[in-house]
Amino acid sequence: MKIIHCSDLHLDSKMKSNLDSKKAKERRDEILITYQKMVKYAAENEVKVILIAGDMFDKKNITVKAKNIVIDSINSHPEIDFLYLKGNHDEISFIEDLENIPSNLKLFNSKEWTTYRYGKVTISGIEFGELDSYEIYKSLILNKSDINIVTLHGQESNYNVKDKTEIINLKELKNKNIDYLALGHIHKFKQDKLDTRGIYCYSGCLEGRGFDECGEKGFVLLEIGDISSKITSNFIPFSERRLYEVKVDITGTSTTLEVENKIDEKIKDIEKEALIKIILTGKVEIDSERDIAYLEKKYKNLYYFVKIYDETSLQINYMSYENDVSLKGEFIRLVLKQKLSEEEERRIITTGIKALSGEEVN
Amino acid sequence: MNHGKVGAYGGNIELEINNKKYKIERFFGKKEADDTFKLYDLSTNLESNDYTSNIGEEIFKLNKEAFERSTFISGQNMETSMNDSISAKLGNILESENDVNTSDKALKKIEEAIKNYKKTGGRGEINEKIEEKTKLEKKLEQSKFDEKNLQERKNKNSELNEKIKEKQKEQEELKKQIALSLETETKKAKLENYKMLIKNIEESKSTIKEYDEFFKNGIPTDDEIQTLSEKCLLIEKYNMKIKDYDVTSEDRSEIEELKELFEDEDINEDIINSKISEYNNLNEINNNIKLNEEKIFNLKKENESLSKKIKNGRIFTSLIFIFSLITIVATIYTYIRGLKKVAIPLLIVGIFIFVIFLIKKKLNINKEKKSVTKCEELKKLSDITEQLKERAKSIEKDLSNIMNQYKGAISNDVDIVVALTEIKTRYIKYKDLKNNINLFFEKQNKIVKKFKELKGSVKKYLLNYFKEVTDPYINYVHEIKLKKREYLKEIKYYEEKLKQKTNFENTNNISKEDLNENGKDFNKEEIEKKIKDLNKEINRLNDEKNYNKNQIEMLESNLETVFEIENEIEELNQNIQEMQDECNILEKTKKLLETAKNQFSSHYLGGMEENFINNLKLINEKEINANIDVNLNVKINEQGSNKEIRYFSTGYKDLIYICMRLSLINSLFEKEKPFIILDDPFVNLDKAKTQNAINLLKSISKEYQIIYFICHESRK
C-alpha cells in the first residue's frame, strides 16, 4: 500500500517573494498545477491515500478555480482516498461550501480522534482547537498489532501547553504504538526518530512561496509492505521551481562588473527556472561603484525571478578623514558623528559622495 | 563681455606671477569668435602657453562672476553674494578638492532627486504611488465588503440547506404515514376481495346448476356440434339450391310469350340463318342487277357511237376510193396525154390516197367486228339481268312471308336482317328457357328429397335440448355451442375461485370479525395536501438557494481579483517604502551636506566678519555690531536685534557693501593679491565718509594695485 503524506499546500495563497502581480499569479497557478501533478503521480503509482496534514488553503475565501480544481481532482480519482486534516490556516469554508462531500474525501475533526482503516493500516488524526493537549494525547489509543499512522498539524515541541494552540509534544506521543507521525506546519522537510518503534516527519510544503521557504520542496511517499508490514518513507522533491537565497561577499570590488563576476561565480549552478534572492555583503570602499538596478535587470533576463539586496557596509578609514580639510572630509566626519545604522551611514555617504562627484543620485 | 554692444576694443597688460613677468595682448571683437588673446613671456618676449585666455580664473582661482562679485566694485552693483567659486576660494581648498566647487550642484541634484519623490502640491512619485495605492485600497475595501457579503450568503445558504433538510424530513414523516395508511387500505381491500370471491363462487354455482338442467341429456361433444352445424349449413345450402331451381316469374311469363310464337311453327335456327343468308344474297343480286343495267346502258351507248363511226368511215372510204379512182383516171389520162410530169405526181398522190383508202377500209372492218361483239355481249348481259330480277322477286316474297308470320317477335321491321336476328335470338331464348326449366325441375326434385331427410334428422336431435324448434336450426346449434362453452367456462371459473378462496384462507388469517370490520378512517387527502405544500416550500427554498448560489458564484468570481489587488498594494507599499526610504536618505544626505558646507564655510567667516567691522568703523567712525552668514548676507545689530540691509538708507547700504567687498577681497586672496577696480563706488557717501573710504583705499593700496574711476573731483 502506498500513501502520500503532504502538507502546507497553501493553495491559492499570497506569494511572499516580492513578485510582481503577473508573476505572483503565475506562481499561484503553478502551485495548483503542482498539486494536480501530485494527484496524477498518485494515480499513476497506485497510491491509495493522499494524506494532507493541514493548511491545504490559508484563507477564508478561495477562488472558484482553486475550489473546482481540488474538487475535480478528488472526484476524478475515486480510487484514491483524500484524508484532509485542517491546519491553523485552514479557516476556509471549503468543506462547508460543498453540498455533497465526495465519498473519497475523508475528514478529521477537533472533538475526537478519527481513525480510517485500510486493512492492517490505520490512519488517525485530530485537529487542534477544542481539546487541550492532555486530553488529546490521553485519548489516543492504538493497537500494537496494527500499522499506525497518526497525523497532526502543529509545531513540534517537548513540552505541553495549557491552551489549545498547535503545539505537538513529541514526548507525549512516544510509546503510543505510532509507526509514522505525519506532521504539517513546518514548511521544510524534516524526519527524525519518535521512539523505538516509529518516526515523525514534516513533509514540508509542496512549493516555496517566499525566500523563507528555500530549498527542495515536495511530499513524502510511504510504502507499506503487504507481508513485511514495514513502512518505508521517501521524500520526493516535486516543486515546479526552487527558491534560493544567495549571499555574495563583494568585499574588494569597486565596479559593477566586478560585482557581477562575483555573483556569476555564486549562482552559476542554479537552474534558470529558479527564484533567487541575492544579498550583497562585505565591506566596500566609499568610491566603489555598483548599479543594483542594472544587475537586477541582467539577472531577471536569465532567471525566472531575481531580487538583489545590497547589505554591504563601507570600508572607511576614519583616520584619513579626521584631518581632511575639505568639504568631503567635513561631510564624512559629520555623517560618522550621527547615530545612524550601518546601512543608513553607507547609503548617506554614498549618496553624498555621488552628488559631490556630479553623478546622478537616484 | 557684451559682444556686439560696445564694438571692438582691446589693449595690453603687463603682470608678474610667481616672479615671472608676462604681457597680455587681448582684443575683443564684435563676436566672441573674433576675440584674440596672446601671452608673452617678457623675459624672452616669446609667446607663452603658461596660461590660457581664462588666465584670471587660473591665477586667482575665481571665475568671471566671482571676480565681478569681489574685486570689481562698481557703484552700480556692489551687493556681495556667495557663489561656489567664492565659497571654494574662501575655503582655500581648490588646489586639492575639485569636488567641493560643485557643492551647490550636488545639493541641487539631491534636491531634484527629492523633488522627483516629493513635489509640492501633493505631487511626486511617492504621492503618485500613494494615490494609486489609495485607489486600490478602495477597490480592496469593496472586495472586503464583497467578502463579507459572500460570507453572509454562505451562511444564508447553510440556513437554507438546514431548512430544506427539515422540510424534507417532515415530508418523509408524512409519506410514512401515507405508507401506513396504504397498508391498512390494502388489508381492507383484501377483505373486500375475499367477500367478492365468496359471492362469485355462489353466483357461479347457481349458473352451473342452470346449465346442468339444460344439458340433462348429456353434453354434446365438439364433433357432434360440428356435425350438427355442418348439417344445418347443408340444410341452408339445399334450401338455397331449391330456391335457385325455381323458375322466376319473368322467365315464366317470357316462356309463355315465346311459346305462343314458336311452339306450333316449324322453324329452327338453320331456317332463320338461311333466310338471313338469302336476304344477304338478295342485296347482292340487286347490286348485280344494278351493275348489269349500268353495263347494258354503256354498251348500248358504245354501240351507237361505234355504228355512227362505222357509218362515217364507210362514207369517208367511199369518198377516198372515188377520189383515188379519179386520180388514177387522171394519171392515166395525163400519161396518155403524155403529160408525164403531171402524171407521175398524180400517180404518187393516187397511190397515196389509195393507201389511205386501204388503211381506212381495214379500220372500218375492225370497228364492225367490234360492234358485232358488243351486241352479243349486250344480249347476254340482258338475259342474266332478267334472271337476277326473277330471283330477287322470289326471295323478297319469301322474306315477306316470314316477317309477317313472326311479326310479334320483332320490334323493328325496317331492317330485315335485324328483324331476322331478333326472331333468331328469341327463338334461341325460348329453346334455352324451355331446356333450363326442364333441367331445374329435375334437379330440384332430387334436392328436395335430401333436404327433407336432413331436416328431420336435425330437428330430432335438437328436440333433446329444446321443447320445440323452428327453422333455421343453426341458431339452436349456436345456442348449444355457446351454452356448452359458457358451462365449461363457468365450471373452470368456479374451480378457480374455489382455489383462490382456499389460497386466500391459507395465506390470510381471516376471521369472521375481520369480515365484519369496516376499517379506520384516514384523511389521506389532508396528508397529501400537506406533502404537496411541503414540496412547494422545498421548491421555493431551493429556488432561493439557487439564487443565493448564483450570487455566491458571482461574489467568488469578483473576489478572484482580490489577490491581484492585494499583490499590487503590497508591491506599491514596497515601492512607497523604498522610495520613502530613499527620500529619507536623500533628505538626510542633503541636510548633512548643507551642514557640512556651512560648517566648512564658517571657518573663514570669523576673520571676514572682523575685517568688515574694522573697515566699517574706519569709514563710519562709529562702533557697530554685525553678523555675516555663510551666504555673505550681512545683518547689522541695532538695539539688540539683527536688521537686514534692505532696511537701511542707500548711503548706508553702499557703505556696508564697500566694506563687505574689501573684507571679501582680503579673505579671498591670501597669496596672489589681485588688482581692485573701483568704478566710482562712493557716490552715495557723504564727504566725511568718502574721505574715510579714500583713506582706507590708500591703506589697502600697499598690498593691492587699485584702479579707481571717478566721475567727480569731489571723490578724488
Describe the overall structure.
The complex is a heterodimer of chains A (362) and B (716). Chain A has three domains: 2-237, Purple Acid Phosphatase, chain A, domain 2 (4-Layer Sandwich); 242-315, Translation Initiation Factor IF3; 317-362, no CATH class. Chain A is built from ten helices and 19 strands. Chain A has helices at 21-44, 64-75, 94-97, 133-138, 170-173, 256-267, 292-302, 318-322, 327-337, 342-356; strands at 2-6, 47-53, 81-85, 105-107, 114-118, 121-125, 147-153, 155-157, 167-169, 180-184, 190-193, 199-202, 218-224, 231-237, 243-249, 275-281, 283-285, 305-310, 313-315. Chain A has a six-stranded mixed β-sheet, covered by helices on one side. A six-stranded mixed β-sheet of chain A has the order 5-6-7-10-12-11, with no helix packed on it. The N and C termini of chain A lie far apart (62 Å). The model of chain A has no long low-confidence stretch (mean pLDDT 89). By secondary structure, chain B is α+β, with helices and mostly antiparallel strands. Among the domains of chain B are: 1-53, no CATH class; 127-198 and 524-581; 266-405. Chain B has helices spanning 55-60, 64-70, 84-91, 103-117, 125-214, 222-244, 249-262, 269-336, 340-405, 416-462, 474-507, 512-516, 524-620, 650-668, 687-700; strands spanning 9-17, 20-28, 36-41, 46-47, 72-74, 625-628, 634-638, 641-644, 675-679, 705-709. In chain B, helix 13 (524-620) packs across helix 15. The longest helix of chain B is centred in the last third of the chain and has 97 residues, at 524-620. Chain B is elongated, with a radius of gyration of 87 Å. The relative contact order of chain B is 0.11. Chains A and B meet through helix 1, helix 2, helix 9 and helix 10 of A and helix 4, helix 5 and helix 13 of B.
